[in-house]
Amino acid sequence: MALEDLERREPWRRIVFPLDVPAASEAQHWVEELAGCVGVFKVGLELFIRCGPGIVAWIRERAAGGVFLDLKLHDIPHTVGRAMRAIAAGGARWATVHCGENPAMLRAAVEGAAGRVGVLAVTVLTSVSAEHLREAGFEAAWAENPERLVLERARRAREAGCAGVVCSGREAAWVRRAIPRPFLIVTPGIRPGGAAPADDQVRVASAAAAVAAGADYLVIGRPIREAPDPRAAARAIAAEIGRASCRERV
Questions:
Q1: How many other C-beta atoms lie within 10 A of the C-beta of residue 119?
Q2: What's the CA gap between 129 and 97, in Å, rounded?
Q3: pLDDT digits (tens, 9 = 90+) for 57-93
Q4: Is 193 exposed, middle or buried (0-12, 13-18, 19+ CB in 10 A)?
Q5: Concatenated DSSP letters of 98-150
Q6: Please, which pLDDT band fits residue 140 given cuts at 50, 70 and 90?
Q7: Could you tell me how far CA 54 lies from the centroid of its own chain?
Q8: Is 42 one of the annotated active-site residues of the chain?
């Protein structure tokens, strides 16, 4: 599951585009529109619930880098393991599971995947702020330093055998310094210049900053989808990734 040489040479392959749409027809439009400009397409809860496994198979045949099935499993270990076995049979490249409270859940996900799908552990959602963590009952040492919480969860994920983690660009450097490749870092919350967006993302970073910090793949939706020319926007981001890759410090 290491970042492949081809994906280093061709930075557009490191872009993950989320298909956050309610219908197969819309998803198919974006796959056809962005083929050759982004590498991986992400299927989340809404699209999967509406369209089922068939949409994963359809995208897999057309996506250069495969399908990222982002269902964020979180249940008792037995249930998560069985769900991951079903996911593995569907041909996704990666699938997500929340780190949660019980390391046995992560181990069950890895066992269920059986090497056929890379398990990515979601550490702390990029929509979660320090204030949210305090309100959820986390002690100040964790709530005021989300990096510590992300790093602790990343270590648990590695020990369980996960292929990598999902974390924001703000924590990527912490994770990469502690855990070398081939352990993957997939980073959402990418915004031009790392500016705070007017949406539900809180912990954001620019594409260049995330790559320089050690992120392998970047989940980028709104900056591409809402651009006047989505293909041109994707190409511009790929160029930014390419320049940052040359300066990667890890």
A1: 30
A2: 20
A3: 999 999 999 999 999 999 999 999 999 999 999 999 9
A4: exposed
A5: E--S-HHHHHHHHHHHTTSSEEEEE-S-TT--HHHHHHTT--HHHHT-HHHHH
A6: confident
A7: 21
A8: no
90 Cβ partners below 8 Å, 6+ apart? 53, 56, 57, 69
Distance CA 204, CA 121 (A): 19
pLDDT digits (tens, 9 = 90+) for 185-241: 999 989 876 555 545 566 688 999 999 999 999 999 999 999 999 999 999 999 999
Q: Which candidate in 8, 60, 72, 181 is catalytic?
A: 72
Amino acid identity of residue 208, one-letter, is: A
The C-alpha atoms of residue 79 and residue 97 are separated, in whole angstroms, by 12
Tokens 């930075």, residue? 11
Give the residue carrying structure tokens 């400009």: 37
In degrees rounded to 5, what are phi and psi of residue 197? -85, 165
Q: Which amino acid is at 238?
A: A
